[in-house]
């Protein structure tokens, strides 16, 4: 269990299996009355008298599908693999318990409390997070606790077996030496231009090839799909937005944009009273209204002499620089607008925004048009989506749903898994067409949320199973394959002739390509198949060793000239040693599993 979750730990469903059921008694409330297996008597197998229920298999299958580790088209084949895995787990659990392996409640609780997957923002265990994430992985607390306990027992058993075996230092050194080994060789590639072959494909040859390779000539399971789509962006395309609404949206969008501000400041306190300062500030405001420039007015009236000499300019400001009262006035102004009197910090201010740090209105017009239109149709979109949910759930078709909602019923040609185009090519959409409810029960799918602006419902109009095609249906493809096979065989024969000549010393006019000091880990442009074959060849003794290897539409002739031991790499040596230990441990564990399987009473 734990390992399967760790393998898929890119999703919560995987991380969750590391622990569960802790702490508070609240975790055990009503849920403790339920088991993941329920009272389902549908037993599919037994291991030494202990049952494996169908629901166990279905839960594991659905978890694997949700994690994305298994493609939906492999769901049926997955069930057999899951049953085999559950049988193995049952055997290991029984063996561990017979051997006295024990996991206490306190051990489980201590593990779970420390798991960050179930912690809140303050780093404390949260029963709410615990419940939510557990439910998302398809577990109840009681069932998860028992499965976790069994999983830890199996881990202890496997770790004990792994540590009981070891490899000698000399073995590890030999493995590291082989891993860093380097080989120098020559090679030449033969293709269709290097042989003269009369390709002649007969009916008998095609029939033979077709009979041997029938799996290549199957028509996959296919469906014809109908679907309706509610698209908020398409709905927004026909909406007209007036100019004032666009400008309001622009102002709102840039409400918090940085801006260059000028001010006139008239203080009060020791030298003048508040009333006197307010009267002088009003004079300045009247001067501005009578057409005097802001710079001249600031120079005459502002007590901030430093900024007054710059026309009152305070520079570019962001929200929060001068306090709430200043922000309220300054960030309510558009470029070129002037405020009323603003009182703050023992002074009256008159503010003017001279520049906005934002794109001009005209540059944003198109984006604003789309945003405002989308907002305008949001209510209609949400209502239509709700109607789609309600009507598609109850309907036996999609045509009536499309007619009622004013939508287009889209229809596809035959599609196999993964072949959808447009919206049907988006992740998970076409998978719905092959789900049990839609494909086998004939229901409309649930409403699929493609993104914030699109909702889709589909149904299967027609379905056909995987079909073995007749030879006449694929005659051209078979003929091409037989012809390619004949050309490849001719290349292999030519390669064998050339190697025989090389071995006898007769061939000396080959234009070799050289590859020097190639290691198993070399990031070269050489075909991997060729490199792998080079390292399978025996070490040369007193001369080159020759071999051929088939590649796609070509054959390579290899001349292995020398083998050398590469430089010692401590990191590589350590890695090889770890891999050797892991492989040895796996072998020991697999040996135990094989022995348990041979002695067990398994009914399925």
UniProtKB/TrEMBL annotation:
<keyword id="KW-0143">Chaperone</keyword>
<dbReference type="InterPro" id="IPR000297">
    <property type="entry name" value="PPIase_PpiC"/>
</dbReference>
<dbReference type="Pfam" id="PF13624">
    <property type="entry name" value="SurA_N_3"/>
</dbReference>
<keyword id="KW-0812">Transmembrane</keyword>
<dbReference type="InterPro" id="IPR027304">
    <property type="entry name" value="Trigger_fact/SurA_dom_sf"/>
</dbReference>
<feature type="transmembrane region" description="Helical">
    <location>
        <begin position="12"/>
        <end position="37"/>
    </location>
</feature>
<keyword id="KW-1133">Transmembrane helix</keyword>
<dbReference type="InterPro" id="IPR046357">
    <property type="entry name" value="PPIase_dom_sf"/>
</dbReference>
<feature type="domain" description="PpiC">
    <location>
        <begin position="256"/>
        <end position="355"/>
    </location>
</feature>
<keyword id="KW-0413">Isomerase</keyword>
<comment type="similarity">
    <text>Belongs to the PpiD chaperone family.</text>
</comment>
<keyword id="KW-0997">Cell inner membrane</keyword>
<keyword id="KW-0697">Rotamase</keyword>
<keyword id="KW-0175">Coiled coil</keyword>
<feature type="coiled-coil region">
    <location>
        <begin position="474"/>
        <end position="501"/>
    </location>
</feature>
<dbReference type="Pfam" id="PF00639">
    <property type="entry name" value="Rotamase"/>
</dbReference>
<keyword id="KW-1003">Cell membrane</keyword>
<protein>
    <recommendedName>
        <fullName>Periplasmic chaperone PpiD</fullName>
    </recommendedName>
</protein>
<dbReference type="InterPro" id="IPR052029">
    <property type="entry name" value="PpiD_chaperone"/>
</dbReference>
<keyword id="KW-0472">Membrane</keyword>
């Amino acid at each position: 269990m734990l390992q399967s979750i760790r393998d898929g730990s890119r999703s919560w469903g995987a991380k969750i299996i590391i622990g569960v059921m802790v702490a508070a008694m609240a975790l055990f409330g009503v849920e403790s009355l339920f088991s993941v297996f329920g009272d389902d008597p549908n037993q599919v197998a037994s291991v030494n008298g202990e049952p494996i229920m169908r629901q166990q298999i279905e839960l594991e299958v659905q978890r694997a599908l949700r994690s994305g580790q298994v493609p939906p088209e492999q769901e049926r084949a997955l069930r057999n693999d899951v049953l085999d895995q559950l049988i193995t787990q049952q055997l290991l659990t029984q063996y561990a318990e017979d051997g006295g392996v024990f996991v206490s409640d306190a051990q489980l609780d201590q593990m779970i409390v420390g798991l960050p997957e179930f912690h809140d923002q303050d780093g404390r265990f949260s029963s709410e997070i615990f419940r939510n994430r557990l439910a998302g992985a398809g577990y109840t607390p009681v069932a998860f606790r028992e499965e976790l306990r069994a999983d830890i027992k199996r881990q202890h058993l496997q770790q004990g077996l792994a540590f009981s075996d070891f490899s000698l230092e000399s073995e590890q050194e030999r493995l590291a030496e082989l891993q860093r080994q380097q080989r120098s060789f020559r090679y030449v590639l033969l293709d269709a231009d290097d042989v003269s072959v009369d390709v002649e494909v007969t009916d008998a040859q095609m029939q033979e090839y077709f009979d041997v390779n029938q799996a290549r000539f199957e028509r996959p399971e296919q469906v014809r799909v109908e679907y309706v789509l509610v698209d908020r962006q398409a709905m927004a395309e026909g909406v007209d937005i007036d100019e004032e609404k666009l400008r309001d949206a622009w102002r709102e969008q840039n409400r918090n944009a940085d801006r260059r501000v000028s001010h006139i400041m008239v203080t009060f306190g020791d030298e003048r009273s508040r009333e006197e300062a307010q009267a002088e500030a009003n004079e300045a405001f009247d001067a501005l209204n009578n057409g005097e420039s802001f710079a001249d007015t600031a120079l005459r009236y502002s007590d901030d002499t430093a900024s007054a000499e710059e026309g009152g300019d305070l520079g570019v400001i962001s929200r929060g620089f001068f306090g709430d009262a200043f922000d309220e006035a300054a960030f309510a102004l558009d470029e070129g607008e002037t405020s009323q009197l603003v009182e703050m910090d023992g002074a009256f201010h008159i503010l003017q925004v001279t520049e906005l740090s934002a794109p001009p209105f005209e540059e944003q017009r198109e984006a604003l048009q789309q945003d405002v239109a989308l907002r305008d149709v949001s209510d209609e979109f949400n209502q239509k989506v709700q109607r789609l949910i309600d009507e598609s759930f109850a309907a036996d078709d999609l045509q009536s749903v499309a007619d009622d909602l004013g939508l287009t019923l889209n229809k596809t040609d035959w599609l196999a898994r993964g072949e959808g185009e447009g919206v049907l090519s988006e992740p998970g959409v076409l998978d719905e067409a092959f789900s049990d409810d839609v494909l086998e029960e004939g229901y409309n799918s649930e409403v699929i949320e493609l993104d914030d602006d699109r909702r889709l419902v589909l149904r299967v109009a027609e379905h056909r199973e995987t079909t073995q095609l007749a030879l006449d249906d694929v005659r051209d493809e078979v003929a091409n394959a037989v012809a390619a096979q004949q050309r490849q065989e001719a290349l292999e024969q030519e390669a064998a002739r050339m190697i025989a000549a090389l071995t006898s010393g007769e061939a000396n006019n080959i234009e070799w390509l050289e590859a020097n000091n190639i290691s198993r880990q070399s990031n070269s442009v050489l075909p991997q198949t060729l490199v792998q074959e080079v390292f399978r060849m025996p070490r040369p003794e007193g001369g080159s060793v020759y071999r051929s290897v088939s590649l796609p539409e070509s054959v390579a002739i290899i001349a292995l000239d020398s083998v050398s031991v590469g430089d010692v790499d401590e990191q590589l040596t350590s890695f090889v040693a770890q891999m050797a230990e892991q492989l040895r441990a796996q072998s020991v564990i697999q040996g135990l599993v094989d022995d348990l399987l041979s002695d067990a009473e398994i009914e399925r």
